[in-house]
Amino acid sequence: MDNLPRGTLVNLKDLSIGEITEILDIAEEFMEGKRANLGDKLVANLFFEPSTRTRYSFEAAESRLGCQVLSFAKEASSMLKGESLYDTVKTFSQYVDAIIIRHSEDNFYEDLLGNIPVPIINGGDGSGNHPTQSLLDLLTIRQEFGRFEGLKIVIAGDIAHSRVAHTNIEVMRRLGMEVFLSAPPELQDDEEYVELDDIIGEVDIVMLLRVQFERHQEKLNISQEEYHRLYGLTLERYEKIQDHAIIMHPAPVNRGLEIDDSLVECEKSRIFKQMKNGMYIRMAVLYRALTKGDEDDSY
User: Which structural domain range is residue 79 located in?
Assistant: First the structure.
Protein backbone atom coordinates (compact mmCIF):
# COMPACT_ATOMS: atom_id res chain seq x y z
CA MET A 1 0.00 0.00 0.00
CA ASP A 2 3.02 2.31 0.27
CA ASN A 3 2.90 3.19 -3.44
CA LEU A 4 -0.79 4.18 -3.36
CA PRO A 5 -2.19 7.66 -2.73
CA ARG A 6 -2.54 8.27 1.01
CA GLY A 7 -6.07 7.65 2.20
CA THR A 8 -6.82 4.87 -0.27
CA LEU A 9 -9.15 2.43 1.48
CA VAL A 10 -10.28 -0.69 -0.32
CA ASN A 11 -9.84 -3.40 2.33
CA LEU A 12 -9.48 -3.18 6.11
CA LYS A 13 -6.81 -5.89 5.95
CA ASP A 14 -4.54 -3.15 4.58
CA LEU A 15 -4.91 -1.06 7.76
CA SER A 16 -3.10 -1.64 11.03
CA ILE A 17 -4.98 -1.61 14.32
CA GLY A 18 -3.44 1.81 14.94
CA GLU A 19 -4.79 3.18 11.66
CA ILE A 20 -8.25 1.76 12.38
CA THR A 21 -8.19 3.35 15.84
CA GLU A 22 -7.15 6.68 14.30
CA ILE A 23 -10.18 6.66 11.97
CA LEU A 24 -12.53 5.83 14.87
CA ASP A 25 -10.98 8.65 16.92
CA ILE A 26 -11.37 11.20 14.10
CA ALA A 27 -15.00 10.13 13.62
CA GLU A 28 -15.70 10.75 17.31
CA GLU A 29 -14.04 14.16 17.06
CA PHE A 30 -16.46 15.08 14.27
CA MET A 31 -19.32 13.71 16.33
CA GLU A 32 -18.26 15.95 19.19
CA GLY A 33 -18.21 19.06 17.01
CA LYS A 34 -14.90 19.19 15.18
CA ARG A 35 -15.18 21.27 12.02
CA ALA A 36 -13.29 20.99 8.75
CA ASN A 37 -13.38 23.19 5.68
CA LEU A 38 -12.31 21.25 2.61
CA GLY A 39 -14.06 23.52 0.15
CA ASP A 40 -11.19 23.30 -2.32
CA LYS A 41 -11.59 19.52 -2.63
CA LEU A 42 -13.68 17.76 -5.27
CA VAL A 43 -14.94 14.18 -4.74
CA ALA A 44 -16.57 11.82 -7.25
CA ASN A 45 -19.19 9.29 -6.13
CA LEU A 46 -19.31 6.37 -8.57
CA PHE A 47 -22.13 4.04 -7.51
CA PHE A 48 -22.75 1.14 -9.87
CA GLU A 49 -25.23 -0.50 -7.48
CA PRO A 50 -28.33 0.89 -5.75
CA SER A 51 -27.53 2.33 -2.33
CA THR A 52 -29.24 4.47 0.28
CA ARG A 53 -27.17 4.47 3.48
CA THR A 54 -23.70 4.27 1.95
CA ARG A 55 -24.30 6.69 -0.90
CA TYR A 56 -26.19 9.35 0.99
CA SER A 57 -24.09 9.16 4.14
CA PHE A 58 -21.05 9.78 1.92
CA GLU A 59 -22.88 12.73 0.36
CA ALA A 60 -23.79 14.03 3.82
CA ALA A 61 -20.17 13.60 4.93
CA GLU A 62 -18.90 15.44 1.87
CA SER A 63 -21.36 18.26 2.44
CA ARG A 64 -20.44 18.61 6.12
CA LEU A 65 -16.76 18.76 5.15
CA GLY A 66 -17.51 21.47 2.61
CA CYS A 67 -16.40 19.36 -0.35
CA GLN A 68 -17.68 19.77 -3.88
CA VAL A 69 -19.21 16.58 -5.30
CA LEU A 70 -19.54 14.96 -8.72
CA SER A 71 -22.23 12.28 -8.77
CA PHE A 72 -22.07 9.59 -11.45
CA ALA A 73 -24.94 8.13 -13.47
CA LYS A 74 -23.96 5.04 -15.45
CA GLU A 75 -26.96 5.38 -17.75
CA ALA A 76 -25.71 8.82 -18.86
CA SER A 77 -22.04 7.85 -19.19
CA SER A 78 -19.77 6.51 -21.93
CA MET A 79 -19.95 3.08 -20.29
CA LEU A 80 -23.05 2.61 -22.45
CA LYS A 81 -20.70 3.04 -25.41
CA GLY A 82 -18.41 0.30 -24.12
CA GLU A 83 -15.99 2.30 -21.99
CA SER A 84 -14.32 0.15 -19.31
CA LEU A 85 -14.50 0.68 -15.57
CA TYR A 86 -10.78 1.44 -15.62
CA ASP A 87 -11.10 4.18 -18.24
CA THR A 88 -14.13 5.66 -16.49
CA VAL A 89 -12.32 5.86 -13.15
CA LYS A 90 -9.12 7.12 -14.82
CA THR A 91 -11.15 9.89 -16.46
CA PHE A 92 -12.68 11.01 -13.16
CA SER A 93 -9.23 10.95 -11.54
CA GLN A 94 -8.19 13.80 -13.86
CA TYR A 95 -10.82 16.06 -12.29
CA VAL A 96 -11.18 15.16 -8.62
CA ASP A 97 -9.22 14.67 -5.41
CA ALA A 98 -10.81 11.36 -4.32
CA ILE A 99 -13.18 8.75 -5.74
CA ILE A 100 -15.81 6.68 -3.91
CA ILE A 101 -16.77 3.49 -5.77
CA ARG A 102 -19.55 0.96 -5.12
CA HIS A 103 -19.52 -1.97 -7.55
CA SER A 104 -21.14 -5.41 -7.86
CA GLU A 105 -17.86 -7.09 -8.85
CA ASP A 106 -15.67 -8.59 -6.10
CA ASN A 107 -12.32 -6.79 -5.83
CA PHE A 108 -13.19 -4.39 -8.65
CA TYR A 109 -10.28 -2.21 -7.55
CA GLU A 110 -7.49 -4.66 -8.39
CA ASP A 111 -6.82 -3.19 -11.85
CA LEU A 112 -7.13 0.37 -10.55
CA LEU A 113 -4.65 0.41 -7.70
CA GLY A 114 -1.28 1.78 -8.73
CA ASN A 115 -2.75 3.37 -11.86
CA ILE A 116 -5.17 5.91 -10.40
CA PRO A 117 -3.40 8.99 -8.97
CA VAL A 118 -6.04 9.91 -6.36
CA PRO A 119 -7.33 7.98 -3.32
CA ILE A 120 -9.98 5.34 -4.00
CA ILE A 121 -12.44 4.56 -1.22
CA ASN A 122 -14.34 1.30 -1.54
CA GLY A 123 -18.05 1.81 -0.94
CA GLY A 124 -18.63 -1.95 -1.19
CA ASP A 125 -17.54 -4.57 -3.71
CA GLY A 126 -19.78 -7.51 -4.57
CA SER A 127 -19.72 -10.04 -1.74
CA GLY A 128 -16.14 -9.14 -0.85
CA ASN A 129 -15.43 -6.01 1.22
CA HIS A 130 -17.22 -3.08 2.81
CA PRO A 131 -14.59 -1.28 4.89
CA THR A 132 -16.55 1.82 5.89
CA GLN A 133 -19.51 -0.31 7.05
CA SER A 134 -17.19 -2.33 9.27
CA LEU A 135 -15.65 0.86 10.65
CA LEU A 136 -19.06 2.23 11.59
CA ASP A 137 -19.90 -1.11 13.19
CA LEU A 138 -16.67 -0.92 15.20
CA LEU A 139 -17.41 2.65 16.25
CA THR A 140 -20.87 1.61 17.46
CA ILE A 141 -19.41 -1.29 19.45
CA ARG A 142 -16.66 0.86 20.97
CA GLN A 143 -19.18 3.49 22.02
CA GLU A 144 -21.22 0.80 23.74
CA PHE A 145 -18.51 -1.25 25.46
CA GLY A 146 -15.37 0.89 25.38
CA ARG A 147 -13.30 -2.00 24.06
CA PHE A 148 -13.14 -4.88 21.59
CA GLU A 149 -10.93 -7.42 23.33
CA GLY A 150 -12.95 -10.28 24.79
CA LEU A 151 -16.32 -9.28 23.36
CA LYS A 152 -18.46 -11.99 21.80
CA ILE A 153 -20.54 -11.44 18.68
CA VAL A 154 -22.77 -13.69 16.62
CA ILE A 155 -23.22 -12.70 12.98
CA ALA A 156 -26.34 -14.40 11.65
CA GLY A 157 -27.92 -14.62 8.23
CA ASP A 158 -26.66 -14.51 4.65
CA ILE A 159 -22.94 -14.97 5.39
CA ALA A 160 -22.04 -16.32 1.95
CA HIS A 161 -23.13 -13.20 0.07
CA SER A 162 -22.30 -10.57 2.70
CA ARG A 163 -19.38 -8.20 2.19
CA VAL A 164 -20.20 -6.84 5.64
CA ALA A 165 -19.70 -10.25 7.23
CA HIS A 166 -16.50 -11.00 5.32
CA THR A 167 -14.95 -7.69 6.36
CA ASN A 168 -16.17 -7.84 9.97
CA ILE A 169 -15.06 -11.42 10.59
CA GLU A 170 -11.44 -10.61 9.78
CA VAL A 171 -11.14 -7.28 11.55
CA MET A 172 -13.11 -8.27 14.64
CA ARG A 173 -10.97 -11.36 15.18
CA ARG A 174 -7.87 -9.22 14.72
CA LEU A 175 -9.19 -6.87 17.42
CA GLY A 176 -9.60 -9.75 19.88
CA MET A 177 -13.32 -10.36 19.55
CA GLU A 178 -14.78 -13.86 19.53
CA VAL A 179 -16.86 -14.20 16.38
CA PHE A 180 -19.59 -16.83 15.98
CA LEU A 181 -21.45 -17.40 12.71
CA SER A 182 -24.94 -18.73 12.16
CA ALA A 183 -26.68 -19.26 8.81
CA PRO A 184 -28.91 -21.63 6.87
CA PRO A 185 -26.85 -24.31 5.06
CA GLU A 186 -27.58 -22.65 1.69
CA LEU A 187 -26.09 -19.35 2.90
CA GLN A 188 -22.91 -20.68 4.51
CA ASP A 189 -19.36 -20.55 3.21
CA ASP A 190 -16.28 -22.42 4.47
CA GLU A 191 -16.33 -21.04 8.03
CA GLU A 192 -17.53 -22.94 11.10
CA TYR A 193 -21.16 -22.39 12.08
CA VAL A 194 -23.29 -22.63 15.21
CA GLU A 195 -27.01 -22.73 15.86
CA LEU A 196 -28.32 -19.29 16.76
CA ASP A 197 -30.35 -20.68 19.66
CA ASP A 198 -27.22 -22.25 21.15
CA ILE A 199 -25.19 -19.03 21.28
CA ILE A 200 -27.59 -16.08 21.42
CA GLY A 201 -27.68 -15.99 25.23
CA GLU A 202 -23.88 -15.87 25.53
CA VAL A 203 -22.91 -13.01 23.24
CA ASP A 204 -22.56 -9.26 23.72
CA ILE A 205 -23.65 -8.38 20.18
CA VAL A 206 -26.24 -9.98 17.91
CA MET A 207 -25.67 -8.84 14.32
CA LEU A 208 -28.30 -9.81 11.76
CA LEU A 209 -27.59 -9.73 8.04
CA ARG A 210 -29.96 -8.99 5.19
CA VAL A 211 -30.89 -11.95 3.03
CA GLN A 212 -29.48 -10.80 -0.33
CA PHE A 213 -31.98 -12.32 -2.72
CA GLU A 214 -30.49 -10.36 -5.64
CA ARG A 215 -27.19 -12.27 -5.30
CA HIS A 216 -28.67 -15.77 -5.02
CA GLN A 217 -28.27 -18.12 -7.95
CA GLU A 218 -31.17 -20.17 -6.62
CA LYS A 219 -34.03 -19.25 -4.32
CA LEU A 220 -34.14 -20.54 -0.77
CA ASN A 221 -36.34 -23.57 -0.44
CA ILE A 222 -38.21 -22.14 2.55
CA SER A 223 -40.77 -19.38 2.94
CA GLN A 224 -39.98 -16.04 4.54
CA GLU A 225 -42.07 -17.02 7.55
CA GLU A 226 -40.11 -20.25 7.93
CA TYR A 227 -36.79 -18.43 7.56
CA HIS A 228 -37.77 -16.01 10.30
CA ARG A 229 -38.85 -18.82 12.61
CA LEU A 230 -35.72 -20.89 12.06
CA TYR A 231 -32.98 -18.28 11.58
CA GLY A 232 -34.27 -14.80 12.40
CA LEU A 233 -34.38 -12.74 15.58
CA THR A 234 -37.84 -13.64 16.83
CA LEU A 235 -39.46 -12.31 19.98
CA GLU A 236 -38.69 -15.64 21.65
CA ARG A 237 -34.98 -15.41 20.82
CA TYR A 238 -34.91 -11.78 21.95
CA GLU A 239 -35.91 -12.92 25.43
CA LYS A 240 -32.71 -15.02 25.60
CA ILE A 241 -30.36 -12.08 24.94
CA GLN A 242 -28.25 -10.85 27.85
CA ASP A 243 -29.39 -7.61 29.50
CA HIS A 244 -26.32 -5.67 28.36
CA ALA A 245 -26.27 -7.07 24.80
CA ILE A 246 -27.07 -5.00 21.72
CA ILE A 247 -28.64 -5.76 18.33
CA MET A 248 -27.04 -4.59 15.07
CA HIS A 249 -27.89 -4.84 11.38
CA PRO A 250 -26.12 -3.18 8.40
CA ALA A 251 -29.50 -2.51 6.71
CA PRO A 252 -31.61 -2.31 4.67
CA VAL A 253 -33.68 -4.47 6.99
CA ASN A 254 -36.16 -7.04 5.75
CA ARG A 255 -38.59 -6.55 8.63
CA GLY A 256 -40.20 -9.77 9.73
CA LEU A 257 -37.52 -11.83 7.98
CA GLU A 258 -34.13 -11.31 9.65
CA ILE A 259 -35.65 -9.53 12.63
CA ASP A 260 -39.13 -9.13 14.06
CA ASP A 261 -40.62 -5.77 13.05
CA SER A 262 -41.12 -4.71 16.67
CA LEU A 263 -37.42 -5.23 17.46
CA VAL A 264 -35.93 -2.97 14.78
CA GLU A 265 -36.21 0.05 17.09
CA CYS A 266 -36.32 -1.70 20.46
CA GLU A 267 -34.24 -0.69 23.49
CA LYS A 268 -31.36 -2.99 22.58
CA SER A 269 -31.29 -2.05 18.91
CA ARG A 270 -28.44 0.11 17.63
CA ILE A 271 -29.48 -0.11 13.98
CA PHE A 272 -30.23 3.58 13.48
CA LYS A 273 -27.25 4.58 15.60
CA GLN A 274 -25.10 2.60 13.16
CA MET A 275 -26.56 4.66 10.31
CA LYS A 276 -25.74 7.95 12.01
CA ASN A 277 -22.25 6.73 12.88
CA GLY A 278 -21.82 5.95 9.19
CA MET A 279 -21.82 9.64 8.33
CA TYR A 280 -19.12 10.41 10.91
CA ILE A 281 -16.98 7.44 9.85
CA ARG A 282 -17.19 8.54 6.22
CA MET A 283 -16.27 12.09 7.26
CA ALA A 284 -13.19 10.64 8.97
CA VAL A 285 -12.24 8.46 5.99
CA LEU A 286 -12.62 11.39 3.58
CA TYR A 287 -10.75 13.75 5.89
CA ARG A 288 -7.89 11.26 6.11
CA ALA A 289 -7.80 10.93 2.32
CA LEU A 290 -8.15 14.60 1.44
CA THR A 291 -5.92 16.31 3.98
CA LYS A 292 -2.98 13.93 3.49
CA GLY A 293 -1.93 14.67 7.05
CA ASP A 294 -2.00 18.43 6.54
CA GLU A 295 -3.59 19.86 9.67
CA ASP A 296 -3.85 23.31 8.09
CA ASP A 297 -7.27 22.27 6.73
CA SER A 298 -8.59 20.96 10.02
CA TYR A 299 -10.68 23.80 11.38
Answer: 12-128+276-297
What CATH number should be reported for the domain holding residue 160?
A: 3.40.50.1370
- Residues 24, 65, single domain; the answer is yes
What CA–CA distance (Å, rounded) separates 102 from 148?
28
pLDDT tens profile 96-150: 999 999 999 999 999 899 999 999 999 999 889 999 999 999 999 999 999 999 9
Please give the pLDDT value at position 2.
58
The whole-number pLDDT of residue 214 equals 52
Report yes or no on 200 lying in a domain. Answer: yes
Q: Is the domain of 122 the same as that of 144?
A: no
Spatial strand order of the sheet with 68-71 comes to 68-71, 42-47, 98-103, 120-125
Burial bucket for residue 114 (CB in 10 Å: 0-12, 13-18, 19+): exposed
Q: How far apart are CA 144 and CA 138, in angstroms?
A: 10
Q: Tell me the mean pLDDT in the region 162-182.
A: 97
Indicate if 81 and 150 belong to the same structural domain: no
Cα 19 off chain centre by: 17
The phi and psi torsions of 247 (rounded to 5 degrees) equal -110, 135
